[in-house]
């Protein structure tokens, strides 16, 4: 019985450790996303300290690979009190000194040495000869990969004692490495933009180039963020399922809160991707049957049973891109449902046939909007209420699409009565 209880205690401790690690990663990820890029260095050093302390490392660091010149250099470092820093000694180190290291990273694998003293002695330039003078007893180095390209690694040294890393720890450290790639990449992008701004002779050309780079960067960062967020969501979901019987309601609620915020972050990233690409889609416009398009949208949405969505008969056909107009109607309908506090929510999709254009409307009987906020709701990340799962980017996407098609969009609303969003689409032969 005692042995069984000891096993359960150990299992509970492992689960608690994993959950705390995941919460720490979510906290760091949030800081990275909202970071002032002028403070990236201190932010990275702070996160190295947090992760280093959490896993019991004595030194944590970031290296960049220069595969063209076959060198690697230490770019960021944190050391525990009493541990000597090595960053100045580790610049432009020939890669052939750490070939085993590089081989593992090239495969996308961690390089892990549980006991440095057990390494083979390969002479004064061998790996053991490099690590032992630094007092390293154990280490783990996780590759940093950007767009399938090896760009560096993040490592953790144990100097005071040997440290054994579990597979779960390794997986979570991979998530941290992906987060570092994102924030460093953002900083590099900002530095590039600042340099471009200093060149007055090519200012106009640079502005256009910067906009393109920012859009590409947004897509790249968003795609890269999806992977760690998915990993975090999966890990927490597993924990919730496996521990459903052993955790109390408060702890289960905490897990639900984490999942809610991870899903919210995922929705935000999807919104950013849509916003950054909606005017970049290289697709020819075609005739769109809005009766079929809008009905398919409603059929594929997860609409609560008590919500009624009415679509006016005989919606017109228009010329446009199917994906763009799906985003328009989906975001407007979703927004009408999201901001509705009535017992019997209603959403109405309609149109009026004008001489040179169609005037569409999406009407609800929801909470309404104050007149002074009509323009604000179309701004990116603007939300009038913080207690919703909406990322606050849907109406920005809608306005961008309608504006690109040379249409108008506006709001009529009364508080506690409802809101109608109108937009126009030009008629084309």
Automatic annotation (TrEMBL):
Kinase among keywords: yes
Q: Which domain of life is it from?
A: Bacteria
Signal peptide extent: none
Q: Protein name, please?
A: histidine kinase
EC primary class: transferase
The reaction(s) this protein catalyses:
ATP + protein L-histidine = ADP + protein N-phospho-L-histidine
> SUPFAM superfamilies recorded for this chain?
ATPase domain of HSP90 chaperone/DNA topoisomerase II/histidine kinase, GAF domain-like, Homodimeric domain of signal transducing histidine kinase
**A Pfam short name:** HisKA
Q: NAD as a keyword?
A: no
Q: Which molecular function terms from Gene Ontology are attached?
A: phosphorelay sensor kinase activity
Which residues, by range, are in coiled-coil regions?
A: 193-220
Keywords, A to Z, come to:
Coiled coil, Kinase, Phosphoprotein, Transferase
Record EC number = 2.7.13.3
């Amino acid at each position: 019985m005692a042995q069984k209880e000891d096993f359960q205690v150990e299992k509970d401790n492992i689960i608690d450790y994993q959950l705390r690690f995941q919460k720490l990663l979510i906290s760091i990820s949030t800081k990275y996303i909202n970071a002032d890029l002028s403070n990236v260095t201190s932010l990275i050093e702070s996160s190295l300290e947090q992760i280093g302390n959490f896993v019991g490392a004595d030194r944590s660091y970031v290296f960049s690979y220069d595969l063209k010149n076959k060198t690697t250099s230490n770019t960021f470092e944190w050391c525990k009190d009493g541990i000597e820093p090595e960053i100045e000694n580790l610049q432009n180190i020939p890669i052939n000194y750490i070939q085993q290291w590089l081989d593992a990273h090239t495969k996308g694998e961690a390089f892990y040495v549980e006991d440095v003293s057990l390494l083979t002695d390969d002479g004064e330039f061998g790996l053991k000869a490099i690590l032992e003078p630094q007092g390293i007893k154990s280490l783990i180095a996780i590759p940093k990969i950007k767009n399938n390209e090896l760009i560096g690694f993040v490592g953790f040294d144990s100097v005071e004692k040997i440290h054994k890393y579990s597979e779960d720890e390794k997986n979570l450290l991979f998530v941290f490495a992906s987060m570092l790639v994102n924030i460093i990449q953002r900083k590099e992008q900002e530095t590039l933009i600042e340099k471009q701004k200093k060149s007055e002779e090519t200012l106009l050309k640079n502005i256009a180039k910067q906009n393109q780079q920012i859009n590409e960067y947004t897509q790249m960062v968003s795609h890269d963020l999806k992977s760690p967020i998915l990993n975090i969501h999966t890990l927490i979901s597993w924990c919730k399922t496996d521990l459903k019987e052993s955790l109390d309601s408060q702890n289960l609620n905490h897990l639900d809160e984490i999942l809610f915020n991870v899903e919210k972050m995922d929705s935000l990233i999807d919104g950013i991707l849509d916003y950054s690409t909606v005017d970049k889609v290289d697709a020819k416009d075609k005739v769109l049957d809005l009766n079929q398009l809008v009905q398919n949208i409603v059929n594929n949405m997860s609409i609560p049973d008590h919500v009624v969505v009415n679509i006016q008969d005989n919606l017109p056909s228009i010329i446009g891109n199917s994906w763009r107009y799906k985003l328009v109607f989906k975001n407007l309908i979703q927004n009408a449902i999201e901001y509705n506090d009535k017992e019997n929510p209603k959403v109405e999709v309609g149109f009026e046939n004008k001489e040179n254009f169609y005037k569409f409307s999406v009407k609800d009987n929801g909470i309404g909007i104050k007149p002074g906020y009509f323009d604000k709701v179309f701004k990116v990340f603007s939300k009038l209420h913080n207690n919703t799962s909406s990322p606050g980017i849907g109406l920005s996407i809608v306005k961008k699409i309608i504006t690109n098609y040379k249409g108008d969009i506006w709001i009529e609303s009364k508080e506690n009565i409802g809101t109608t969003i109108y937009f126009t689409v030009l008629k084309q032969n």
